[in-house]
Amino acid sequence: MSTSDSTNEVRASWEITADTLADRAFALNLHDAGLSQVRRLSLVLLVPWLLFLPYGLSFVKTNAPKAAPLLILVPIVLVLARLVTRPHFHAWRARRQASKHPHLGARTELHATEERLTLQTADVRSKASLSSYRKVVVGRRGLLLYVQPNVATWFPRAGFESDEAVERLVAWLVGVGVGVERG
What we know:
4-stranded mixed sheet, 4-stranded antiparallel sheet, about 45% helix, disordered N terminus
């Protein structure tokens, strides 16, 4: 974990662990670039009602009109269960699959300047201009830097020396026209 003292560069370093992979999965789940929040919420709310509606109507007709609240209560429970468990399920699955990850335990180094970002692991070195990124999502646990709508690189905050270094990197990205979303 280090950041350069110079204001012209940002350096960060972190180890790829089960926790960093789980944080990445959690962040990607919350900021799925493929579906807007409104569209995702409408799907989450609509699907349980559509699945339960035929059963609920037949149950009300055959049993009693007093059972009508079930037509509303059961889908609400299904929706709440999905909203509460979905992000945690993705993080749990990421931790579980971490043992198979090819870069588990590898050290990742980030070096960024106002024009360029360089990532390096033991076997890979990647350089890109900051303007080649489309969007950055700034979260509590780290940054998601999108190259394409569904392709993001995860930068855990723990790898940076301070929040000022993270904000400096975000400011450079904004300076070259990259969109920012805070979440």
